[in-house]
Specification:
- With 487 residues, the protein is mainly alpha-helical.
- The protein is built from 17 helices and two strands.
- The chain has a two-stranded antiparallel sheet with strand order 1-2.
- About 4% of the residues have low confidence.
């Protein structure tokens, strides 16, 4: 009987302008979302490649100088000599000078795009994703490599359209439009007894419409996700997990619609009830849960770091404090008495310039780590009870699958900081020991290596588990309530 009702409902669906318009709207928004996500991914990759070209050009310039030194065709400019003694022509940095190494040997740290970044952009466009690193203070990298719209308040307010946004916000509205009158239509039009006479029950009708109409929405969503995965050459396992999540979330909202339809409420009442549930579940519950779990003082780490760096600049930046600053840095970071440095190290580079950089970096790193610790505690709390808001837990799970989750971005930032600190310490060690950077040491300078973290199984299990459990419970309640009821 159910399959007969499915065939009958398919004919009704094809003859309903409203239903076809709703499905067409879902398809149209999905096309826009996929195009928007692919555009963001393309510009993300292009920006990384542009930075890679800048870094390669800088390295090639130093290599050319090294080659010129080897064959005697290049004479670097002696920065310690008076300008009147500089050779004519452009300034030629001496790559053997550690100070030059610190400024001219640029390196790239880039966060590889997640496998399905274009389907779940999340906050990726507002987080650090690439850095051209050299030994300037880390505070200069506070807003690194972001596209112009990332600092546009309108973009911050509106966010970016992607397939995950369509799945979480638009697909439930389409399901409500298709299923709000799943049984009320027949009851209010008076044809319920006729269908009952054919042997159909309310449960049969609910099951048929849930399978057909919920399946139609799920099919459209899965179709566009599959297209996006193919275009993005995403791994099969990751794509399959993302598709499974999409099906679970569609089933979750189909179950909610069927539970409301299993009651005796009118079509208008069902529509109003489902609209209220959409607002409460999709909009209010994530906001309230995040607000309840948000620790005091949780701000973007880079904003806190910027404030601390400005405080350091005000405190230590004055010229009359140079000697005090050099002494402070020598004792705190270099573990030396700067007066004991060899004569070749007693010039402004390591003592004046590097001392203020070191103090700024200390303030920046401290604030970043404190902010990240607060964010990590926040994430742990959301993982623990995020299932209370199915859209919130589900979004976090899907972003983790797609590689656009906050934890991945935090790990990248931490690894960039560690790499930059190691690079700076390497250069300063050469500076203070008057040790030139020879060709072998130059070639051996380590590059940044990104290590992809493991999938956050707790977030995925919590998000998928909550919508899956509630979907199953909703179907059970809807079908049980309507088992003994006639149309």
């Amino acid at each position: 009987m159910i399959w007969s009702l499915i065939r009958l409902d398919a004919q009704l669906l094809l003859r309903s302008p409203t239903a076809l318009a709703a499905l067409a709207l879902l398809a149209g928004v999905s096309v826009l979302a996929l195009a928007s996500g692919l555009d963001w991914r393309a510009r993300y990759v292009a920006a990384i490649e542009a930075d890679r070209a800048v870094v390669a050009e800088a390295r090639a310039a130093l290599v050319a100088v090294y080659d010129g030194l080897d064959d005697g065709t290049v004479t670097p400019t002696d920065v310690h000599a008076p300008r009147s003694e500089w050779p004519e022509g452009p300034y030629i940095p001496d790559p053997r000078d550690p100070y030059v190494e610190g400024f001219y040997h640029k390196r790239l740290a880039a966060l590889a795009p997640g496998p399905l970044l274009h389907l779940a952009v999340g906050a990726s466009e507002l987080a650090p994703n690439r850095q051209i690193l050299y030994t300037v203070p880390l505070s200069g990298l506070a807003r690194p490599g972001e596209p112009p719209e990332a600092v546009n308040p309108a973009a911050l307010a509106a966010g970016r359209l992607d397939m995950l946004a369509v799945l979480i916000f638009v697909a439930p509205l389409i399901l409500i439009a298709l299923l709000f009158d799943a049984t009320a239509r027949e009851r209010e039009s008076g044809i319920g007894p006729l269908i009952s006479a054919l042997g159909a029950t309310r449960r049969d009708l609910l099951a048929a419409r849930g399978i057909l109409r919920g399946g139609a929405v799920a099919t459209l969503v899965v179709l566009f996700i599959t297209v996006g995965a193919i275009v993005g050459a995403a791994p099969l396992g990751t794509s399959g997990l993302f598709v499974a999540g999409a099906v679970l979330y569609t089933a979750f909202w189909t179950a909610i619609c069927l539970v409301v339809a299993s009651t005796q409420v009118t079509a208008v009442g069902a529509a109003a009830t489902l609209a209220g549930l959409w607002v409460a579940v999709t909009l209010l519950s994530p906001s309230l849960l995040e607000r309840a779990l948000r620790p005091d003082g949780l701000l973007a780490p880079r904003a806190l770091a910027d404030a601390d760096v400005r405080a350091v600049a005000r405190t230590w930046g004055a010229e009359e404090r140079v000697e005090a600053r050099i002494t402070e840095v020598g004792k705190r970071f270099w573990n030396i008495d700067t007066a004991s440095l060899p004569a070749c190290a007693q010039y402004d580079g390591p003592l004046v310039d590097w001392s203020i950089r070191w103090l700024m970096d200390a303030a920046y790193v401290r604030s970043i780590k404190n902010g990240q610790a607060a964010e990590a505690r926040f994430d742990t709390g959301l993982d623990r009870i995020g299932w209370l808001s199915p859209p919130l837990g589900f979004r976090r799970a899907m972003e983790s699958v797609a590689g656009s989750d906050p934890a991945r971005n935090r790990l990248f930032e931490s690894e960039v900081i560690a790499y930059h600190q190691g690079m700076k310490e390497r250069v300063v060690a050469h500076l203070l020991e008057c040790d030139p950077i020879d060709r072998e040491a130059f070639n051996a300078a380590p590059e940044f290596v990104w290590r992809e973290p493991a999938l956050r199984s707790a977030a995925v299990a919590g998000g998928f588990g909550s919508v899956g459990f509630l979907a199953a419970a909703g179907f059970a309640v809807a079908l049980r309530r309507s088992r003994s009821r006639s149309l």
